[in-house]
Each structure stands twice: as C-alpha cells, then as structure tokens.
Amino acid sequence: MSTATTGVDLSAKAKEAQAQLDAHVREIIEWHFNPATGCPFWLEFAASKLSWDPRKEIRCYADLRKFPPFEDEWLRGGPVRRWAPKGLAGKPMFVFETGGTTGVPKSRLAMEDFRTDYEMFSETLPEKYFPRGANWLMLGPSGPRRLRLAVEHLCQHRGGICFCVDLDPRWVVKLIRQGHLDELELYKAHVIEQAITVLNAGTTSAVCSPRPSCSNPWRKSSTIAVRASPRPASRASSPAGPSSRPQYTRLQPKNCSAKAST
C-alpha cells in the first residue's frame, strides 16, 4: 500500500524502527561486555578471541556481523555459571536444557526472561479461549525444559492455577530410536490417563479444547494441556453432590478422538 492509501509514512516508521533496534543493540552489547555487568564467558571471549572492543565497534544491528559465528558447543557442558551476568548477581537462577537428541544437551541460564516473555505473550491471547482467572492443565515436559515453568507462570499471570502432568520427550525419543513401539503406546496411554484422572477429579475446573487433535500426541508436547475453562459456578448457585461436578472429556488413549465438553 502507498502512503496516500494508508495515510502513514512507512519510510519514517521504518527509520524509527531501525533507530530503536540499533539503540537496543548498543544497550545489549554494553551490558554483556561491560566488566561490571557482563558474564565471564563474554568478558573472556572479548579479551582472548577478539582484537577489538565490542562496546566501541558495535554501534548498530548491521555491525553484529563483525562477530564470528556462535558455536553450539559453547552451550554444552559447564560450568554453567560462566553465563551468569555480574549485573544480575544474587538473583535466583534457572538452568534450561534442550532434548539432547544431537548429543550432550545444550544448557542456558535464565533469571526472569522466561517470565517476561510469557507475560508479553499473555497480551496476545484471546479472552474467548483463555479467560482470565481460569485454571489450566499443562501436559508436557517439566524439567529440564523451561516449558512447565513458563506455562505455569503464564497461567498465574492471568489469575489461574496451573495443574501439571509430566511428559518426558527424551524417553519418547529413545523408545522410537530403539523401535520399542509397544512401550511407546504404553507410555502414551500412561500420560493421557494421568491427564484424564486429574480432569475427572474435579479439582482443576479445567477442560480440554473443543475437538482436541490427539492422533499424534508427540507432534506437539502440549496436545492436551492447552485450554483453560471459564471460572466455575459458585457452590451457592450449584446443587451439591456428584451430579454438580463439571463434565470433563474422557479421552480414549487408543484413538483420543472424543469431543470435549462445553
């Protein structure tokens, strides 16, 4: 669309966005390569691997090309504290790892960033499907992944309680590689059964998404743990007894094709 059509000067917007990006790059470089705030890895890297000062040479996003390629191997093994910025000393640290399908798992150190990421993500969720104050059931990897903590924080940030059922993707990958498909089916049924048990217990007030797609639960690790229910009715407005419990979906591990209750 042209400027005349939209009424917006796109070139000015592009320049503004570029200026903001370049300023952000300078701020990040200053943080990571400043002896007062940077982490041991990058401070040592600049001193031993570079013949120039990043804080002076990196002035915009395009200047990042001056750095050599980042090596995946740097993230394998320890000590993991070499990634802890001095500027965040004293804050609780979390270690998140990859699945390890290509060798030794890669590790990353985090403090608050996963919470910040998911609080921003929260603003994009439609209220229709993710009502505030709703409880969730999260079925997916817990430690050493960040998914469980991140989803749990997202639920809490939106005023709910997150119930969790663990799924171990490393075990799934091992079963597939070794051809133990019968054991894979047993494990699949095991994790789905746990989710059904939690839902049917009546403690979560959470339901599955309408018509969940569960034909291949390993395609997405959070196949079942995706949908929050609206706030349940109060006890005062509902008759007492078992019949007043929410009617939860009973997913069948063999085909997992049942509709979710509304």
Describe the structure.
The structure is a single chain. This protein has 262 residues and is mainly alpha-helical. It has 8 helices and 4 strands; from the N terminus they run ααααββαβαβαα. The protein has helices spanning 3-6, 10-33, 40-49, 54-57, 113-122, 147-157, 169-177, 181-200, and strands at residues 94-97, 107-110, 136-140, 162-166. The strands form 2 sheets. It has a two-stranded antiparallel ribbon. Strands 3-4 form a two-stranded parallel ribbon. α5 (113-122) packs across α6. The chain is globular, with a radius of gyration of 24 Å. The model is unreliable at 208-262 (pLDDT under 50).
Question: Nutshell version of this structure?
Answer:
Helix 5 (113-122) packs across helix 6. The protein has 262 residues and is mainly alpha-helical.
Strand content: 5-15%
Structural class: mainly alpha
Largest sheet: 2 strands, antiparallel
Low-confidence stretches: 208-262
Shape: globular
- Number of H- or I-type helical stretches: 8
Number of separate strands: 4
Mean pLDDT: 78
What is the string of SSEs from the N terminus onward?
Answer: HHHHEEHEHEHH
* Distance between the amino and carboxyl termini: 42 Å
As laid out across the biggest beta sheet, the strand order is: 1-2
Proportion in helices: 25-40%
Query: If you compute it from the alpha carbons, what radius of gyration comes out, rounded to the nearest whole angstrom?
Result: 24 Å
Give short descriptive properties of this protein.
single chain; 262 residues; mainly alpha; 4 strands; 35% helix; disordered C terminus
